[in-house]
Amino acid sequence: MASSTIFKNFTVPVEKKSLLLIGKDIISDKYKTEVEEIRNLIAQGKRQKPTTKEKLLAFTPSAVFSEKGKCLFLKCTVALCI
Hints:
The protein has three helices and five strands, in the order ββαααβββ. By secondary structure, it is of the alpha+beta class.
């Protein structure tokens, strides 16, 4: 099954998770509160604090990494993205 690395603060790997489960998390309300906070700030024309978006988890659909999301730490690529 195709997997991806979940990152915190865009640089710290939190876990390896299947792309199917990542998709289900995105579709569900799991991240709704955090995303709505950012959307509201944008709608009000307020600048986000640099850390606002960094609080959200990020993922790399193209590969799995052991540490930072750099080629040096690449464990495997995801064939779906090739």
